[in-house]
Structure formats: C-alpha cells, structure tokens
Amino acid sequence: MPRYTGINHLAMATGDMDATIRFWRDLLGMRLVAGLGHPGYRHYFLEISETDMIAFFEWPEVEPVAPKDHGVPVKGPCVFDHISFGVSERAELWELKAKLEAAGFWASEIIDHGFILSLYSFDPNNIAIEFSWPQPGIDLREKPRLVDKLPGTARLEGSEPQPGKWPAPEPVRREDMKAYPGEGRELLGKD
Questions:
Q1: 16/125 Cα distance (integer angstroms)
Q2: Residue 105: which residues within 8 A CB-CB, separation 6 or more?
Q3: Considering the domain 81-143, what is its CATH architecture?
Q4: What are the E-state strand segments in the chain?
Q5: Where are the chain's structural domains?
C-alpha cells in the first residue's frame, strides 16, 4: 500500500487569476510557489504547508460557481463540497475571521464540532472553504471514531484498508516505468 505524504495539490479553476492570487496569497498568506502560462491558460500553485499546495487553472470562460453552503446536500452532478485548512493555533480562527470580514468576504461564526473548531467562508470563485483547529486531546487519526447510525457494509469492515477487495495488479516491470513530458518542465529550464 502506498504511504501518502499529504495532498501534493488540489487543482481548482478560476476565471480571474489576479483576484484568486490576491485572496489566497495576500489575504490568507499562502506563498505563490509556481506559475505556468501561455495564452488562454495559466496554472499557479500556492503553498499550504511543507507538503501541501492548492493550485488554480485560469481558463478565460470559467465563471464562479453558484454559492453552495458547506455540507448542504445537493441534487444532480457534484464532485466537490469544500476544503478545510488546518490551523496551528486556536486564536488563528478569529484572526482569519477578522481578515476575511475586513476584506469584504463573508465569514461564519466559529463553530464547535466537538473534535474541531471551524470557520467557514468562500474565496472569490465561490469555492467553499473551512479553517479548522483540532480540539486538544482528540486525535481521530490516532483513534478513529465511527458513529454512523445507519452504516453501510464497507463502514462495518472497520477503519483499516481491507486487502483483497480489488483485483491484484500484475507486478510492474522496471522497463515499463516510463514518464512522459508534460506542462511544468519549463519551470526548471527544461524543454
């Protein structure tokens, strides 16, 4: 099983890269670490932490999504609800709330979910975002807590990955491990 190191990046879309950078870099304080582009296409990356980034594609005809409140069920196609960013200090939630509101963005009250405190808002693209601070002494990664009153079969099998649920792949041969050139090599002066 792979050992994951975090979210390398989440790739979102925007029609206004400048407003997006101003929000994520200048308001929220995430460092802009890479930018690619040519006419009709830009792809920029911002650093969340030492291992995690958020990225945005700018496409000329992308429009902000219709506002949708965090966690509220929808009908029809849907692939994304919201993203939550962890903060290291409790007081940072109130600091973020003040920054967002001073900049004219809606920000919720701080919500106590028992295991985390959360602040909710939206970026300029109406992407639903949350900021979370873990409650002391409650580590769901260390000790998972599953309290679904109507669990499905997969949930009843427990927290740990269940081997044998999918067909086993054939071993990958070294000569088949090929990587093909893609966007981004120009950041390193290649191609």
A1: 8
A2: 23, 27, 121, 122
A3: Roll (3.10)
A4: 9-14, 32-38, 41-47, 53-58, 83-86, 111-112, 116-122, 128-134
A5: 1-60, 81-143
Q: How far apart are CA 71 and CA 4, in angstroms?
A: 26
Q: Which CATH class is domain 1-60?
A: alpha beta
CA 6 to chain centre: 10
Strand order through the sheet with 9-14:
9-14, 53-58, 41-47, 32-38
Tally the residues of the chain: 191
DSSP letter at 27 equals I
The amino acid that residue 164 corresponds to is G
Domains 1-60 and 81-143 share a fold: yes
Q: What is the pLDDT along the chain (191 residues), one digit of tens a residue?
A: 667 777 889 999 999 999 999 999 999 999 999 998 888 888 999 999 988 999 999 988 888 888 888 998 988 877 788 999 999 999 999 999 999 999 999 999 999 999 899 999 999 999 999 999 999 998 888 888 877 787 778 788 878 888 888 888 899 999 999 998 888 888 887 65
Question: For residues 50 and 61, what is the distance between their CA atoms, to the nearest angstrom?
Answer: 32
Q: How far is CA 62 from CA 42, 91, 124, 190, in A?
A: 12, 35, 12, 30
Angstrom distance (rounded) from CA 133 to CA 88: 7
Q: Under the phi-then-psi rule, with left for phi > 0, alpha for psi from -120 to 50, and beta for the rest, what region is 189?
A: left
